[in-house]
Amino acid sequence: MSQTTLLALTTLLFLAIVGGIAGVLLEARRVGADGIHNPATRDAMWPIVGWGVMFALYLVIEWIDVANLTPQFRTLLGTLTVLPFYYAVFATLRLIWHSARRIQAWLWGWDTVTWHAIPVLGRLAFPTLFVAAVCAALTELTYSGLSLSLLLYASIVALLALLRTPPRLNTGSQSAVPPPETA
After folding, report:
1. Are 132 and 45 members of one domain?
2. Same domain (yes/no): 125, 52
């Protein structure tokens, strides 16, 4: 790994840790929610899952011993590791973005932070994983061309594109549709 890559990943993780802690503390103060009910805690959970999968995969490979793996299996494993890596990076960037918005709201005295979903991605159940799968498929296409791994990534992208978020039911006292005007 080059020094530039190591510096970039270290900076990314440092910003995510500091921003995640600040976001959790600010949300706990603002909403009064703690634990899993805190939205910032849920935001911080996904990068932990992504990087945890990467480290677990590394530990399993070290436990099995790389010398015991066939070259074809090592190539396949390296190809499939791209998806959790992209997911971990994008989830970390999303955490940094949300934490920066929370810190900005606290500094400027805003009561709430307004989140705007990206039009197409906002309807997906797993938007960060979808973007990671698209990037992994593009990486596979760039380096290997048409291959079975590309077909696997394309099927993952198609599956994630089909999974939509369920419509939110309006159970509160406020109606999403304004009442009809009376004359």
Report:
1. no
2. no
Residues of the domain holding 121 = 116-165
What total number of domains does the chain contain?
2
Count Cβ neighbours within 10 Å for each residue of 110-145 and write b for 16 or more, e otherwise: eeebeeeeeeeeeebebbbbbbbbbbbbebbeeeee
Query: Residue with structure tokens 């990486």?
Result: 139
* Model-wide pTM > 0.85: no
Give the relative orientation of helices 3-31 and 39-64 as an angle to the nearest 10 degrees.
Answer: 150
CA distances (Å), origin 122, targets 85, 125, 126 = 22, 8, 9
Q: Are residues 127 and 161 in the same domain?
A: yes
Give the tens place of pLDDT for each residue, 112-167.
776 666 777 767 778 888 999 999 999 999 988 888 888 888 999 999 888 877 66
